[in-house]
Design brief:
The complex is a heterodimer of chains A (about 300) and B (about 70). Chain A is about 5% helix and about 40% strand. Chain A is mostly beta strands and about 300 residues long. In chain A, the strands form 7 sheets. In chain A, strands 3-4-5-6 form a 4-stranded antiparallel sheet, with no helix packed on it. The longest helix of chain A is centred in the N-terminal third of the chain and has 16 residues. Chain B has about 70 residues and is mainly beta. Chain B has one domain. In chain B, strand 2 and strand 3 form a beta hairpin. The chains are: A mainly beta (about 300), B mainly beta (about 70). Chains A and B meet through strand 3, strand 4, strand 20, strand 24 and strand 25 of A and strand 1, strand 4, strand 5 and strand 6 of B.
């Protein structure tokens, strides 16, 4: 079909507008491709034939992610992926700065977790419930590999890790107990709680531990005279539901709660398709947000 | 602020008001979203095993003056 004059003019105008944006034309023909490095604005290599990538910092992994954590200054991201490789990233430009292979072959159904110390000096990696590795966050040096007490029993393996500022210890949760580990010596110091460590508030030392019946105990860390936890509250939740503590340690968000018990008695029942926020000090429900299906809360 | 992810999508709530500010993509494999230490950024699993970051300030509802 022959184009009318009225249609040709705007069509040419569009071509010229694009050319002004960067594609040099010579006598109406595209110029020969210049030999510039095929990278995006963050110096990430581009696939063959791709001339540009319009995107933000994206931290590409070759396989599904398991866990990641920011350094306290927000400049470094530490990630663990399904290939059991730990990667350090520069958050400003997305550059991969360090890559650390796993201590040994780790094949368990438990994905693993990453934590970074509040002073920004250490990172802890729980690999598939078998190993905990302590890394120097400044240079990715491997400091300690700590094997689970019963690594053949997944329920007893290392699952959750979290650093504390005072005392400067690492809290490690397994299905049947939680322990303090000294990140400097790599030694397991003592058993903290008979429950599994599941969540912690970021700026107040309130932690949540879950027992085998999925009863959730909220405790507050007392650092003086040796670290110990003082009970704060008690809830009963369903095992597969998500838990998050507010940074100030005053509220807990749980999803799909079935029952709340007080002194062992079912006090309240709620529908499962909701997010509930409770005031820890009073055990009272403060907000209820409807949402269908939950995996995680933050 | 609270972020919760389910199998179909994720939601961001202002806890005090109980208001749902925005929706985000569902997080795969039950992985949680992660706030940066200063709370300014939120990170989650992006397309193709990447980590995507959101600027938390952009979740806030526009003020009445900004809406005009």
């Amino acid at each position: 079909m022959r184009l009318s004059t009225r249609m040709r003019i705007p069509s040419r105008a569009i071509v010229l507008a694009i050319a002004a944006g960067g594609l040099p034309l010579q006598n109406g023909q595209a110029a020969e491709p210049q030999t510039t490095p095929a990278v995006d604005q963050y110096d990430h290599a581009l696939p063959s034939g791709v001339v540009a990538r319009l995107s933000a910092v994206r931290f590409p992994h070759p396989c599904p992610l398991y866990s990641w954590a920011y350094s306290p200054d927000g400049k470094t991201l530490v990630s663990l992926a399904e290939d059991q490789v730990v990667r350090f990233w520069n958050t400003a430009n997305g550059q991969l700065t360090h890559k650390i292979d796993s201590p040994a072959t780790v094949i368990t159904p438990w994905p693993g977790q990453v934590a970074v110390s509040p002073d920004g000096r250490r990172a802890a990696i729980a690999y598939g419930s078998v190993w905990i590795r302590i890394l120097d966050l400044t240079n990715a040096e491997i400091l300690h590999d700590i094997k689970a007490l019963r690594p053949d029993v997944v329920r007893d393996g290392w699952h959750a890790v979290e650093f504390f500022a005072a005392p400067p210890l690492l809290l490690v949760g397994s299905e049947r107990a939680s322990f303090w580990i000294d990140p400097e010596s790599g030694k397991v110091q003592s058993r903290v709680h008979t429950g599994r460590f599941v969540a912690r508030s970021k700026s107040a030392d309130v932690c949540a531990f879950s027992d085998e019946n999925y009863a959730l105990e909220l405790v507050r860390l007392q650092a003086a005279d040796g670290p110990r936890f003082q009970p704060a509250s008690l809830y009963t939740i369903r095992a597969d539901r998500a838990i998050a503590l507010s940074p100030d340690g005053r509220q807990i968000a749980v999803t799909g709660i079935g029952r709340i018990r007080k002194q062992g008695v079912v006090a309240t029942e709620y529908p499962s398709a909701s997010i509930e926020i409770h005031e820890i000090s009073t055990n009272k429900l403060s907000s209820l947000m409807e949402f269908l299906g939950y995996w995680s809360t933050t | 602020m609270l972020v919760a992810s389910g199998p179909k999508d994720a939601g961001v709530w202002e806890i005090g008001a109980g208001e749902r500010l925005t929706e985000l993509p569902a997080s795969p494999n039950h992985l949680p979203y992660v706030f940066s230490p200063d709370g300014s950024k939120l990170s989650g699993v992006g397309a193709g095993s990447t980590i995507a970051q959101w600027v938390v300030a952009t979740f806030a509802k526009p003020t009445s003056s900004a809406e005009r």
